[in-house]
Design brief:
Layout lengths: L10 E5 L15 E3 L5 E3 L2 H21 L6 E5 L18 H18 L4 E4 L3 H4 L4 H9 L11 E2 L1 E6 L8 E6 L11 H19 L6 E4 L6 E5 L6 E5 L22 E10 L2 E11 L7
Parallel strand pairs: 1-4, 4-5, 5-6, 8-9, 9-11
Antiparallel strand pairs: 1-12, 2-3, 7-8, 10-11, 12-13
Length: 287
């Protein structure tokens, strides 16, 4: 594959974990056509989440990008799949789930004018080798990696001016460690940043200014002062509510769902910085 000219961009929007096909996750409004000829209509919960989805893209993104062009990184788990014996899916037909995911993401690809990257998520959701996400990414014409994969395992992305020395450098990957205790929520996030600096120093590479992960469904960020100004490790929230599985795990069963995304921006006198947009569903009312 011939080398492509680097996309010079100062704004990157990152979202993850839409889990299309789950009854507790993001779903477009109206009747969703299913492969058996039937239809599905989203719940009140899903309609509320869709309102936030439109607020995020129609209001927050234009504001934080200052109306400038931006790229979008989808950081894994586009479909819910058939997993862990669960019955919360709209359909166990992955064609239905992929159709819903495309209905959600295709307009976003258009909004960012094709500057769209997709990262592979979890095999429990996307199947062996994340074949379902690769197929979806190809249908969305995501920017492929050097091996021609439309859904890649990781992304190193320069953000900022043409001169790479003046750019920020970000590393995107889906997985990160979790914890059963809120008191240690920062541990794996901070460790990810430390390991990135260790590996870069070991091989004489430039360390990332920002490490971006997903998977946890909870927003978290840790920062350190660095030569470039700061070094950041950040985890994106999700676009899925609590499934029955969540009520069984420590650290999740009492937590409220966190919905949203982040921006990585170069400029405003900083090499690279992040901002976040997070909403939460309130806990049930006391009776």
């Amino acid at each position: 594959m011939s080398k492509r000219r680097r996309l010079v961009i100062s704004n990157v929007i990152c979202i993850s974990d839409i889990h299309a096909g789950c009854k507790m996750a993001l779903c477009p409004p109206g009747e969703i056509p299913l492969d058996d000829g039937g239809t599905y209509k989203g719940s009140k919960f899903q309609r509320k989440m869709w309102t936030w989805w439109r607020e995020f893209w129609d209001e927050w993104v234009p504001r934080v990008t200052r109306g400038e062009p931006y790229a979008v990184v989808f950081n894994g788990d586009a479909i819910d799949g058939v997993h862990h014996g669960s019955t919360t899916q709209i359909s166990h037909n992955l064609v239905d789930q992929a159709r819903i995911a495309k209905m959600i993401l295709a307009p976003i690809v258009e909004m960012c004018e094709g500057r769209f990257y997709m990262i592979r998520g979890t095999e429990a959701h996307g199947g062996s080798s994340l074949a379902s996400e690769e197929s979806l990414a190809e249908s969305l014409n995501a920017i492929p990696d050097e091996e021609g994969r439309y859904a890649r395992y990781e992304l190193w992305k320069y953000i900022g001016p043409e001169n790479k020395r003046l750019c920020g450098l970000a590393h995107f990957m889906h997985h990160i460690g979790t914890t059963s205790s809120s008191a240690y929520e920062s541990t794996a996030v901070h460790k990810e940043l430390a390991e990135a600096f260790y590996e870069a120093g070991r091989w004489g590479e430039r360390p990332p200014d920002v490490v971006v992960r997903a998977h946890r469904h909870r927003f978290f960020k840790t920062e350190l002062p660095a030569k470039s100004g700061r070094a950041t490790s950040i985890v994106t929230p999700a676009w899925q509510g609590k499934t029955p599985f969540t009520y069984k795990i420590a650290g999740g069963r009492q937590a409220v769902p966190q919905i949203g995304g982040i921006i990585l921006r170069s400029g405003d006198e900083e090499v690279l910085y992040t901002r976040h947009w997070v909403r939460n569903f309130k806990r049930p009312n006391a009776e």
